[in-house]
Structures are given as C-alpha cells and as structure tokens.
Amino acid sequence: MLALARIICVVMVVIIPMGHAAERGKITVGSKIDTEGALLGQMIVLVLENNDFAIEDRTEFGPTPIVRKAIISGEIDIYPEYTGNGAFFFSEEDPSLWKDHKKAYAKVKELDLQENGLVWLTPSPANNTWALAVRGGLAEQEELDSLEDFSKYVSGGGTIKLAACEEFVTREDALPSFEKAYGFKIRNDQMIVFSGCNTAQTEKAAAQGTSGVNTAMAFGTDGALAALGLKLLDDTKGVQPVYAPAPVVRREVLDQYPDIENLLTPVFESLDQETLQELNSRIAIGGEGAKSVAGSYLKKQGLL
Q1: What 3-state class would DSSP assign to 102?
Q2: Domain span at residue 262?
Q3: Which of 2, 4, 118, 180 is the most exposed place for a label (fewest CB within 10 A)?
Q4: E strand segments, the chain
C-alpha cells in the first residue's frame, strides 16, 4: 500500500508542471497582409510559442481596417501595428504630434487604451513610413530625388504609372496627403491598385515595368529598393507621420498574461531601421519564408 502511494505522488509531481503549461491559454496572433506584417507577426508567434502559449496563427489576416476590427471585436488578441496609424484611428488629434516618435507612441497608447481597451507595448526604433519610389533609370533621366521633383515631373505631363494598394490610394494620410502637400495629382487611369498593401508586389511591378508601371508605393524599412534598382523619393516637407512598429494586445489578455510585455519588449527594441530592411529583403528578394527569417533572427539574438 505504501509503495502504491509513492507511485501516485511521483505521477502527480510529473503531471502538475504539464497542467501549469496548459493554463497559459490560446493566444490568437494576427498581422497585416504585407512582408513586414508577416515578419513581425511570426516573431510574436514564435516567442509566445517558445514560452508555452498555445497559438492560433492568423498572421497576414488583412489590411489595417480589417485587422483593427478583428482585435477590437476580440477575434484576434495581438498584432503588430504602427504608431503613425494613430493619425488614421484618431483623426481629431493634432496632426503634428504623429510626426514625433515619442509623442505619437504616448498618445496612441493613451487613446487606444481609453477608447478600445487595447494596450500598445514597447515600440521599435524604426520608422516604416509610407513612401513613393521610382525606377532608377527614370530618377536619373529626370533628376528625381524628392517628392518636389516628382511633383514637377507629374504636373508637367511626365509619364507616370503607379502601383499601390487601395489603402494607400484612399487614406487621407497616405497618397492624398502627398498630393496635397506637393501639389500633384495621379489619376485613376495612372494607377494599378492591389487589394493588399504588400510592397514586394508594388516594387516588383515598378522594377519590371509591368503594364508600364514606373512608380511604386513603398515603406521606409523595405529592403528590396536598392536590389530592385528603385529610388526612394525624399519627403522633404515631412508630410508623413512616424510609423514605429509595436505589438498591440487586448487589455484582458495582457491582464491575464502580463509577462507577454516582458517577452516582446527585447524583440521590438532590437528592430532598428537597418535590421528591418535586411530581414524584409531576405523575404522579398531572397524568397525565404517569414517564419524562417523570424526564427533565425530571434535565435541569433538569443530571444528563442
């Protein structure tokens, strides 16, 4: 009888840790449909999985409005977002504050918690801002270095065909803000519009001249620009907000698992501009999978 009691105790010692791990629950991770969204989403997935969370992977879920609706409704629990999108989410605020890294983060963190119960965790120091890029040959031939140069070229009847996503074309803080500030207008027949904001797609179209495309929607942390022979046009007027990537999580989830913040802080703090450009390039140009790139980087940094 005594021997049987000892066996039961040993079994219980083994079972208790397993039960504890299972209690860490299921976290649904989302992201936007673009190269960097997939990369950052997979970093979140891998770090949480490595710390005993059961993960439902819904990365590359959709464009910004769809992902926002999903997290507010509780359909997803966490996803990577950009501080500059506070100008889109809270358009009544002073537009100038979104152009300052620290002020933008502090304000969107405050407002999203108050209005939507969402918590912004520590952001990256990088700035993945909206941008326009043109084919290198066109830039050299027409001396296009800045958006001011581009405006003169477009307004003067220069041949233009833009590849962009619907969000970039329609959002007031994206292409329309460039057009207003620099005084040019790109007509609908001068665009090819994609549903997802994947700059790998738009930049490839410009590099290859697909359907006459010579200009592409781009992001500041894109690593494919130089490799594809594209010239990023300088936003000399500082039209765009700072788009620092950060994890956004539902308050209920963070309250239940507060260590999520400590797990993800060193990840995002390590992602400066050059690092994101290099990692994005491995996906967009090198053809590696987002999960593979995310995993190798995290292991190299000692974060897995």
Answers
A1: helix
A2: 15-127+243-300
A3: 2
A4: 26-32, 54-62, 78-82, 118-120, 130-135, 162-165, 191-194, 215-219, 230-232, 245-250
